[in-house]
Write a structure and sequence with these properties.
The chain is mainly alpha-helical. The protein has a single domain, classed as Arc Repressor Mutant, subunit A (Orthogonal Bundle). The chain is 61% helix and 10% strand. The chain has a 3-stranded antiparallel β-sheet with strand order 1-3-2. The chain is globular. The two termini are 26 Å apart.
Length: 121
């Protein structure tokens, strides 16, 4: 692939992700990164490191996104039982409801992303 085609492909990918994020914000009140945090936590209690590993965000970016999700009342922070310096996160009732709505109602994958998100078997 020529280098310019790669850049043009990335442009289209970023545009499609922007469309996806707009849907999430309009329908559920969360950004794409916030939705990824909700999905990463699910029904579990996880550490910030687990969220970072699952989302691929940098620790700094994950920390900011976690704080944003907490500020929206979707995520609760708990101290570790054995190590009080360790923080763990779980969805609040509001967070579980939000994630449940996203799973139930979904989002329309932008045309460009559809083959990646819904591969044909």
């Amino acid at each position: 692939m020529e280098k310019i085609q790669c850049i043009c492909g990335m442009r289209d990918l970023v545009r499609a992700l922007s469309q996806l994020e707009t849907q999430l914000e309009e329908n559920y009140g969360v950004t794409l990164n916030e939705a990824m945090v909700l999905c990463s936590v699910g029904g579990d209690t996880v550490s910030a490191g687990d969220i970072t590993a699952c989302t691929g965000m940098t620790p700094s970016h994950a920390s900011k996104t976690i704080r944003s999700v907490e500020d929206k009342g979707l995520l609760a922070r708990k101290l570790g039982e054995h190590d009080k310096r360790q923080m763990y996160f779980a969805l609040t009732r509001k967070g579980k409801n939000c994630l449940g709505r996203i799973k139930e109602q979904g989002v329309d994958a932008p045309e460009w992303l559809a083959p990646l998100l819904n591969p044909v078997p």
